[in-house]
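Risk mitigation, structural track. In case the binding assays with methionine sulfoxide fail to produce interpretable data, a predicted complex structure has been prepared as a fallback.
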Amino acid sequence: MTSVSSNVLSAQARGLGTKAELYKTVMDQLQSLIRAESDWIANLANAAALIFESLPDLNWAGFYLLKDGELVVGPFQGKVACVRIQIGKGVCGTAAETRKTVIVPDVHEFPGHIACDSASRSEIVVPLTREGELIGVLDLDSPSLARFDDEDAAGLEELAKVLVRGKRRDRRELKQDRCID
Ligand code: SME
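Fallback model:
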């Protein structure tokens, strides 16, 4: 048990930190990671790695991005995944279509679930929207049943908001932050 996520899990199991505190820590780290960087894909890549390493009991964490009317896999951590998902299909396509976070306690009970890693037992998908428009989804899988709850939804939705806001930052704002010409 040497990984960051295992350490976090054991800390939580010992009552050393609440889930809300964990999400606050992840948020602080995400903000400092993306503060001075405007490249959307770079920020999604680091966000996927941060989430995968920080939150316990995950086997996949990453993004699907809306391209030409379908979801295409973006930066992620975990086993290789299906590349394209149609809007309305699977858990990702359902969250994309409804623009609402979907929590699936048991993926085998979700009609149309798309299995990328047979180890996955539960899943949460958070839509990424900008001014009401869908731009992608954040998808987390766990090998445990019922791994995700409303606190995860709230924490991940906040992380998603910060990422989407980061996408909007233009070069001028970045220069001001860095105090460069
Ligand atoms: N299970 C997802 C597909 C993506 S993978 O979990 C990485 C779905 O049903 O949409």
